[in-house]
Amino acid sequence: MGLFFLVPLGLVFAISFASRGTYGGVVWELTSANYLDLLHPLYGKILGQSLWYATITTVICFALGFPLAYVIARSPARWQPIFLLLVMLPFWTNFLVRTYAWMILLRHDGLINRSLMALGIVDSPLDLLYRPTAVVIGLVYGYLPFMVLPLYVAVERLDPLLVDAAWDLYASRWAVFTRVVLPLTKPGIIGGCILVFIPSIGSFITPDLLGGARSMMIGNLIQHEYLVVRDWPLGSAVSFVLMAIVMAAVLLYYKTASRSDGRLEAR
Amino acid sequence: MKRESIGLKAVSLAAMLFLYGPIVVLVLYSFNAAHLSMAWSGATLKWYATLLYDGALLAATANSLFVAVVSTIVATGLGGLLALGMERMPHRRQQTIEGGLVLPLVIPEVMMGIALMLFFVMLKMPLGLTTVILGHIVFNIPLVTIMLRARLRKLDPALGEAAADLGAGSWQIFRYVTLPLLRPAIWGAVLVAFTVSLDDFLVTFFTAGPGATTLPLKVYSMIKSGVTPEINALSALLLGISMACVGLSLHLQRREV
Amino acid sequence: MASLSTSPPSLSDGSFSSTPPTIEIQGIVRRHGAVTAVDGISFEVRRGEFFSILGPSGAGKTSVLRMLAGFEDPDEGDLLIDGRSMLHVPPNRRPVNLVFQSYALFPHLTVFENVAFGLRMRRVPAPRIAEQVRQALLMVKLLGKEARLPAQLSGGEQQRVALARALVNKPAVLLLDEPLAALDQQLRQQMQVELKSIQEQAGLTCVCVTHHQEEAMMMSDRIAVMHQGRMLQIGPPREVYERPQSLFVSRFLGVSNELPGKIVGTREGKTVFQPADDGQPSLLVPAVSGQESDRPATLSLRPEQLRLTQERSSLSDEVLSGRIEKVLFAGSEMKYLIRVSRDHLWEVDTRPSAHSAGFTPGATVFLHWSTSDGRLFVE
Predict the structure, then answer these.
(1) What is the pTM of this model?
(2) What is the ipTM of this complex?
(3) Does domain A43-266 have CATH number 1.10.3720.10?
(4) Is residue C214 a contact partner of residue C181, using CB atoms and an 8 Å limit?
(5) Is A97 part of the contact surface with chain B (CB cutoff 8 Å)?
(6) I need a surface site. Which of A56, A129, B92, C243 has the fewest CB within 10 A?
């Protein structure tokens, strides 16, 4: 198990410091050139773009996921597992297929353009597919369940009487949300955001199918360097930049998780 | 309070529509008679029928099933042994291994794919079904182990002691107490591992060689060459299979006493 | 070490027995890391005896039970059952069965299969299993529920299954870990009586661990009070209750009315005790061994050993004055809280219909008791 997992990762790490051979192989010369290459504006743009898409995806997932989690957590107890199952079920189906479903919807000739034209909202079909918007829609669609679950757990633990108490003490709706609900569900919010951010930043299928050449993300760059350009050392270096971002997010997740645990115990 | 919850419910409803809308549309269009247009021109099953005559597709299906079955069996065996073995380890080592188990689940799949590909290439293993199966075993073991550990942790340690007190040796405790109590979780893990293996695209994409095309790889290449009604039908089938597997798995896990 | 602690004089209660002990515990020590859970204890349990180990949580009593069952091994000392050392004998080879505090019923097995488990492990033939399970279920009044799963039973029924599952193996010793702790008050009292009658009927040797002193006193032939890994006192319930050998035992087994002071001498073969509060006269208590003058000591009396009167009378040996501070009506009895010194409130229980009906808060009263009831604990 360790052999088949940690050794390959170590291999990627090692190769990221090697040089590329003339015909695409790996020449074992220690160099940091691959990481320096990443400073090139082209790569910087892809990196920035990936961070941006992942961030927007996280924000939209929160905006959609919080009301959903709240409503589920406050619904009758026997319905809650069913609602949660409904939220999780799409996640367990084939990711490729789910992404493909959006191609049908967003195509020039797709259902959305047809409906818009039939309703007379637009005259000619909109360019929806192969754009950043399509990528973000696909990412939100793919990872929304990851946001809902931890938020549900957090809201479920929140005593509804606290909300009533805030109302009773003259808080406005907005104040109830920002002063009571938000602080008390913070661990769940951070958890959900990180769980959405991690797969978003590392995604490949979504930008590959729904994005165009100009909405590439890190995952596509890695695949491109490996399988198209056959520059393995550079591809490995890109991988480790991605890995570093993901690991930072994971550490942040564990840190907030353990801190909120400690606070619950202290209560 | 009332108005606020109506607002919340509206957003929730929108979110659920967002989750299920595309799937429903996809399934509906798999029955659409029109070949190239998105216009509805009557219901038909002919796209499903054409799938049956696509030899390459059937071969890919056979590959997928083979990979899923083998990797599930091996991963369940190894993952199960690991889960049971971890129970007897000191707490510290359990935590270390647990951290290691989570890692394959959080690192980006692309990275997992290229790492495994590099590994196999360096070992001079020809990329093919064998490497795909090995790759699937690697990501399925942590899944199985984590699921079984969750169940093991819920077991009352007094049950094992009670069995020992009543004369059971360690094999009998395992055979008559631990295993029966673990059985629903084992079946649940088997179904999840099977589903994940059947659906996996990225690790397969990087570790498969020529002739080792699985169903997701086939779907990918079909999508890349254009949207067709056959893909709709195939996609609808895949959706149905995964949902059935997961539904069954959840059902089995919920039955745990 | 072992020969010394086989029967230390302080632990024998004086009653005579001709049968050899079923359990002999010889100076066992059990450490959990830096903590010594059991700190060198020795005792014997006779055949057919109901023996309770009573103590607050953390006293080490569960460790003793787990060592008897075989889940833990002592770090020092020996443990014999029917004359055979049980050191390094695994739980499945020991002639003992344990009723777990949580019952630990196998959730996937029916009542019948739960009870039959031990017999199956010993490869008893099927027809005999059926018969023995039936008898065990009859004994705990659960006939007809064989096919149920544990989750389909009430708490009391689960308790009975756990009992039957252990009984059916006819163990040399039945071990009970807080057997009634999970039951509500009413069921607990009913089960105390039932458990006791099953034990007597089957002639079982029982070792029961509990922190519930009333339960221990009602069911046991002998009680061992355990505290901080040591056995403080072993004896029949009444003796331990009425003649505690330490303040801890006195307080743990019931209400202990206490008054600090010092020993000032001897008179008529008895010890003279002077309460620290100057307002009180000196009192006589049964002779305390190793008495020296000016030794600080504490006097202790049980509420029911005291009688209240309005005026000083000579109806009893010893007398102390106090002021009624609170009167509490508790149904079958009246509780009086009486201040006997600046820092000490005593509790006295009387029947409301008796002669003492008329005390009101603020009244000065006299507390009487016989000299032989007073217990003095030298510090």
Answers:
(1) 0.78
(2) 0.82
(3) yes
(4) no
(5) yes
(6) B92
